[in-house]
Amino acid sequence: MSQSPHNMDYDSSGPPIESEISTSAEQLINNNNNNNNNNNNNNNNNNNNNNNNNNNNINNNNINNNNITDMDTNTTPTLPAISQGPILKFPYSLSSLHWDEDHLENKESVYCYCGKEKAKIMISCDLCKQKFHLQCIRLLEGSLQLYGDWVYRFSCSVCAGRESFERFSKNWVDILEITLFNLQDQKHRHVMGVVYDEMPGIDLQQPLSSSSTTKKSLSSSTSSLSSSSSSSNNNSLGNSPQIQSPKFDSVNSIMDPEDQRFQYFSFDQEIVPFVEINWNLLCSDKKKKLHWQKQLSQALTNGRIFKSGLVNWNMNGYWALGTDQLLLKDNTVFKDKVLAPINNKKRKKKKSSKEEERDKYLTKLLLIPNKESLFVPTIEYDIMCVAKENSAPQIKIGPDQLTVSNEKGYRMARASYPCICGDWYFEIDIMDDVGNCRLGWSTSRGDIQANVGYDQYSYAYRNSQGDIFTSGRSQPYSEPYGKGDTIGFFIRLPVTPNTKPNEVNFPFINQLDVYDLVSNEMPPIPVAGEEPQPPAPAEPLPGSFIMFFKNGVSPSTPAFQNINKAMYYPAASMYMGSTVKFNFGPTFKYPPQDLSFRPYSDILKKK
């Protein structure tokens, strides 16, 4: 089996998890035929009961028709005739469907063997990439699937002659990602007006029947949404079982989706119960050990795709999912990278080069958060602070997440968000006279195991001599500084005709676009057996410049001009015990008097 970033193992423990679910169309038809035969026999044996039998026939037909209502809606094409053999042909032309860029939906709303609309939970075929309703897959009759669970390989019978389905082991990071994704989804549904009562004693791994759930509307304006939701194809074909989580607790009762705390959930009261309730769907290959929650907690800390409530909002024990691309992982090329290969490697049809390149690029972006050497803004932080993951591990960060120090040789600390365009200003207070420091700006390629200004990717102002540094070279600039001084940092990054909209609108852009920006900042990935490619030559940004201020005073000329085009982080490097404190604004001790600027904290405010 191919190795994956998640170290996934093939789960050969047995067939898919069985549970109660709506009866399949084939079973309903067989039951209907049996009922009709029984009624005909009754008619032949006892003519006096003809009326009763006719009534029974009508009732049976009504029951059956109610059960397969969603299978008989007036959408085309219709479900192929059910036979004992596998379905070998779609009732539509697969090649005529027009899919979106990420292959999540098609314009025609045609899916599955049945050709009906897409439901919430769908299973993707690795060969043709079509999406299938869980109930239409005969191999999975009676099975459940959590929303967003992509850790499987499936081949439909049209592609492979018979259906093939394999589940794979999930590690704790995968389990947490799917758990938080479902908790978020349930909370959004709650806000939209459709909620389900918690029913003590119910096995929540089983689909809840209408008798065990009570749908409620939060307001009259959402009652129609609640009604339509209960009768839509998404319930019958969507195989979206009412898998519940514990109620939202008092702290997490924030119901404003615009509030970033909306996405946070209690580890003890929400995350752990959800995993325990849905253990068979998330951890079917794992033995539930006595202290399994400890492994879950460690994965939250080390997973690099989760936001800490303590770090961001002083909410201890709360966590949020930092990524929003889980549904894109249900992708053949991505699975080829992280899961074992599918049994049948024959593809239904050769993809166009454009689609193939898109899948490869999408996979490259999806793998970025798993690379320990890369820091991705927007994943782990909601606030402007010093980012532990964006700094050298030797850096000591104070409880305020603004004060930093370092005991020995030069090491760098960087902020949680960079700037790409605009005029920005922040300050750093010098807290003591111990050691030395070099302060300024750094790109993501700046060496965090060295001082700011060590390479071409960072620019510094040194305390001991008042000179400036980049590429390891010094030049005179201003006065030395020390304890009690406040150093100001101004950067201008003009918008040019070559500036992209995502660069202007950062960080309020699609997270894949954030990954794209991070990817472009990094050197080319080395290919085995080939000579490492040199980094792309630096591209100067016309009109850009950096200025440094000591207690509000700066030389009349910029420290650096036409600096390289890049994403720039506020940065500080300390030596032999030096301690400094960042101030990102909005209030400053010495705001520049002759420059228009925005406080660096405004990076997190929409324009």
Automatic annotation (TrEMBL):
Residues 29-80, 207-250 are annotated as: Disordered. Residues 29-68, 208-240 have a biased composition (Low complexity). Residues 363-547 form the B30.2/SPRY domain. It is found in: Nucleus. Coiled coil: none annotated. Pfam families: SPRY (PF00622). Gene3D superfamilies: 2.60.120.920, 3.90.980.20. PANTHER family: SET1/ASH2 HISTONE METHYLTRANSFERASE COMPLEX SUBUNIT ASH2, SET1_ASH2 HISTONE METHYLTRANSFERASE COMPLEX SUBUNIT ASH2. This is B30.2/SPRY domain-containing protein. The lineage of its organism: Eukaryota, Amoebozoa, Evosea, Eumycetozoa, Dictyostelia.
